[in-house]
Amino acid sequence: MLRHLRPAVALTVFFTLLTGLAYPLVMTGAAQAMFPTAANGSLIDRDGTIIGSELIAQPFAGEAWLHPRPSASGWNAAGTGASNLGPTSAALIATVAERRTAWEAANGTAAPIDAITASGSGLDPHISPETALAQAGRIAAVRGAEAGAVRGVIAAGIEGPFLGLYGEPRVNVLLTNIALDAAFPFPPAEGEGQATE
Amino acid sequence: MSLIAYSLYFAALVSLAWLLAIWMTRVFSGALPAALLRTEATLLRLCGAAPDRGIGWGAYALAVLVFNATCFVVLYVLLRAQGTLPLNPDGIGGMAPDLAFNTAVSFVTNTNWQAYSGEAQLSYLSQMAGLTMQNFVSAGTGMAVAVAVVRGFVAPREATLGNFWVDLTRSVLWILLPLSVVLALFLAWQGVPQTLQGAVMATGLEGQDQIIARGPAAAQIAIKQLGTNGGGFFGVNSAHPFENPTIASNMAQSLSILLIPVAFCFLFGRMAGDRRQGWAIFAAMAVMFVAGLAVVHVYEIAGNPALGVGANMEGKEQRFGAMLSALWAASTTAASNGSVNAMHDSFMPLSGLVMLVFMQIGEVIFGGVGAGLYGMLLYVVLAVFLAGLMVGRTPEYLGRKIEGREVTLAVLAFLSMPLGILVGGALAATVPQALAAVQEPGPHGMSEILYAYSSATGNNGSAFGGYGAALTWHTTALGIIMLLGRYAIIIPMLAIAGSMIRKPQAPVTSGTFPTHGPLFVTLLILTVLILGALTFFPVLALGPIAEETARLAGQSF
């Protein structure tokens, strides 16, 4: 017992210094030097203001914006969470049905499944291309733009599966909203388009 | 299309593991470059570890226990005191005693069950010097024990099981650390944060504020996958876009989860001097894995008609979809990893059944690093014993007789699974202050209890997240059960190894039952399934099977 205590304590100290401090600190230095943007959270700076992270969903609610997937934790990026409701949960089935009704009223099309189910992280930055394109009509109307032009901006942001085999096609909501805002400023300038608000 | 994707994935996994096994065999036999040998010898001598002396099984087990106990004390104190220690930019306070006990046990036993949420309850110092360090040494402990157990089966009589301090140091320095450096840099490139700066305040396009937590995540996530630890930096683990930002990062992590456990199969064959023995164990594991994965894949792609048309996307991320979430769910429960890239609580009932079975049979389908192999050797002892009974000969494995002592010890080790899952689960289902943790009425609630206690006993660490595991009853009970699931298998397995190594190695004759062919693989699979099924089928019928039946009848709860 005592014979083992000295190596146990000594190696605990050694491994704490090596794998608990040196390893993460060296990795921090290397990552900051090699990939500074990624290593700091892929933050997007617009005119000196951080408007978010390209990887983290924001709660877009206005009609002029592409909306993200539902979040069970209110898009809280400092305390994440999912619904964790099971497949036979009456509460889950009712919530999804409500979301479907709301979605179809807002967009006038059938709701794709990713648009009405909450993501695992509550911060899913992506939606499916179907969910994105289905919102084009609403966005175009509010921004006073051609629906086809809005669809074009959205389609330009579609990312395919990795190596053509892994993962799903997707659209990054925040990046696409930035692109939409650049192409069709909101609120629209005087005399332009058919804005309804 | 998905068949091609899965085939390429498995081809990559097996090739990488096969190469790694060559390196690992050299590391554990000490066939290392002289500079590395000098480094470790100096280190161990300074630590008072007498590196050149092998030890008996009892001393090996005692060294494991003393080292892990030391780690537990240090981690517990660190978690309690983190509020007053440096590297805490978000000003997080000390952990409550029961939660600190649960967390310290969880990381020392390589379980990484998380009753806390990382971004809200841990300082950067705790994440790094506490959890990241434990990720390395708890994985190293499992690898060292596995190598010692293998030596018991294959080394000559005059040899020893080896020296725990040497095996531990070699696992960390020459296997886990180099792999982690490569993976951490890859993950940081893909977008996993690696920064000491605190949370950042963003002002969104609609003018709303958003606090974005970040931290030194990439380094920890690399070892959490490679060491089959699984404890996330953030609460939602590898579903979080900061833990797993891209499909490439997902594939790299998916491979890392199974890499070392698969390599251990091939390491076993190499150490035994008969690579077919390693392939046989690999084949038994692979058959069960693919069968389980197929079930999860089919059910998640088919989706939940009660929610709408399409895959089951509740609790899943769009970039991964149903397929990569199914692959991860099967891998993480098979390999005792426990990280998640989708929320298991929201998977279809029979997907949940597969995950429960993978954990309940003792994490032996690849399993934890090292732990999967010595867990499977437990079943090998029982399978060879059953074969011996059937043909009426004294059972032998790798030329050594399996006798009463080994079988008794193997059964004793096996009993820790039903003890933790059924007794622990039964208490959790009856004691009122424990029952409050159940989120959902009906059979899914039963699955939640079962999942928590299966995960803790199997040292897996994943959860049905709706289950309120932070209640004091569960932090305490699950903590005790994690200790049971770890050491009540390690100690008997080392004892079996200590007893096996002293037996003479008989030459192979025409009467020897070959343990490398399809017959043995089938027998091994049946042993695992029959023992597991007989023990857990009744309670599984009350959980996922009842839920599936109710679902098909259109019932909800």
From TrEMBL, chain A:
Q: What is this entry's stated membrane topology? A: Single-pass membrane protein
Keywords, in A-Z order? ATP-binding, Cell membrane, Ion transport, Membrane, Nucleotide-binding, Potassium, Potassium transport, Transmembrane, Transmembrane helix, Transport
Record carries keyword Transmembrane helix: yes
Give GO terms: molecular function aspect only: ATP binding; P-type potassium transmembrane transporter activity
Pull one GO CC term from this UniProt entry: plasma membrane
**Family annotation (Pfam families):** KdpC
Localisation per UniProt entry: Cell membrane
Q: Does the keyword Membrane apply?
A: yes
Subcellular location, principal: membrane
Q: What family is this?
A: Belongs to the KdpC family.
Function of this protein?
Part of the high-affinity ATP-driven potassium transport (or Kdp) system, which catalyzes the hydrolysis of ATP coupled with the electrogenic transport of potassium into the cytoplasm. This subunit acts as a catalytic chaperone that increases the ATP-binding affinity of the ATP-hydrolyzing subunit KdpB by the formation of a transient KdpB/KdpC/ATP ternary complex.
What is the recorded name of this protein? Answer: Potassium-transporting ATPase KdpC subunit
Give the source species. Methylobrevis albus
Automatic annotation (TrEMBL), chain B:
Say which domain of life the source belongs to.
Bacteria
Q: Which GO terms describe its molecular function?
A: P-type potassium transmembrane transporter activity; potassium ion binding
**Predominant location of this chain?**
membrane
TM spans (from-to): 57-79, 172-192, 247-267, 279-299, 407-431, 477-498, 519-542
Subcellular localization, as worded in the UniProt entry: Cell membrane
Q: Give the way it sits in the membrane.
A: Multi-pass membrane protein
Write down any Gene Ontology CC term: plasma membrane
Show the Pfam families listed in the entry: KdpA (PF03814)
Coiled-coil residue windows: none
Q: Which InterPro entries match?
A: KdpA (IPR004623)
Self-association and partners: The system is composed of three essential subunits: KdpA, KdpB and KdpC.
Please give the HAMAP family that the UniProt record associates with this protein.
KdpA
Similarity comment text for this entry: Belongs to the KdpA family.
**NCBIfam families recorded for this chain?**
kdpA (TIGR00680)
What exactly does this protein do?
A: Part of the high-affinity ATP-driven potassium transport (or Kdp) system, which catalyzes the hydrolysis of ATP coupled with the electrogenic transport of potassium into the cytoplasm. This subunit binds the extracellular potassium ions and delivers the ions to the membrane domain of KdpB through an intramembrane tunnel.
Q: What is this protein called?
A: Potassium-transporting ATPase potassium-binding subunit
Native source species: Methylobrevis albus
**Recorded name of the encoding gene:** kdpA
